[in-house]
Write a structure and sequence with these properties.
The chain is an alpha/beta fold. It is about 35% helix and about 25% strand. Keywords: Methyltransferase, Transferase.
Length: about 200
């Protein structure tokens, strides 16, 4: 995945920025509406979402790609985003943060690119305080039809694409009813917002 995103870093905004913009707006709007100031953005990438956070949110972003983080740091400097308090190269499946370090963790288009989405979920749960919130925006595979066929045809190319086209909600949540909200996002419901309260007993 490091290699895939090293290739994408310079053109990511132009290639993916527009199609993912509505999902990012939806996710950050949800974050801004939640209580708590300490926000972790997992898989911050080039920082496309960073300018949208409310000024009172104190945002830390992590990413595995040094090249993507370089672009994010340029954006923070260029747009004078003083509420972005850290951008750190870090593995989302093995974070170095202490337990309960954040009020909210949000992962936008990240669950499909990590090797183990359940491990990602577990780490996000650990670093967010009990009673906080976990949010995901992601593409989840169709269950049938032409899109189902296309996603499974593209699945062997996942190492080149840098994401898994056949990724399902069940790959992230063992019990999808643990989510407090599952809402489609534009365009055409291609992406989905999932909000999961960080309860003590979690499945």
């Amino acid at each position: 995945m490091r290699e895939a995103y090293r290739r994408w870093a310079g053109v990511y905004d132009e290639v993916f920025g527009a199609v993912s913009a509505a999902g990012r707006r939806r996710a950050v709007a949800a974050v801004n509406g939640l209580p708590g100031a300490r926000v972790l953005e997992v898989g911050v990438g080039t920082g496309l979402a960073l300018p949208r956070y409310a000024p009172e949110k104190r945002v830390v972003g992590i990413d595995l790609s040094r090249e993507m983080l370089l672009q994010a740091r340029k954006r923070v400097k260029r747009e004078r985003l003083r509420n972005v308090v850290g951008l750190v190269e870090m593995d989302a499946e093995a974070m170095s943060f202490r337990d309960a370090s954040f009020d909210i963790a949000v992962a936008m288009f990240t669950a499909t690119v990590v090797p183990d989405a359940r491990r990602l979920l577990s780490e996000m749960r650990r670093v967010v305080r009990p009673g906080g919130e976990l949010l995901f925006v992601n593409h989840f595979a169709a269950e049938k039809g032409v899109r189902w066929w296309a996603e499974r045809t593209l699945a062997p190319l996942s190492r080149v694409l840098g994401w898994h086209p056949d990724f399902s909600l069940g790959d992230l949540l063992e019990h999808p009813d643990a989510a407090a909200e599952i809402a489609p996002c534009p365009p055409f419901g291609l992406f989905t917002l999932v909000r999961v309260p960080n309860r003590m007993a979690f499945a």
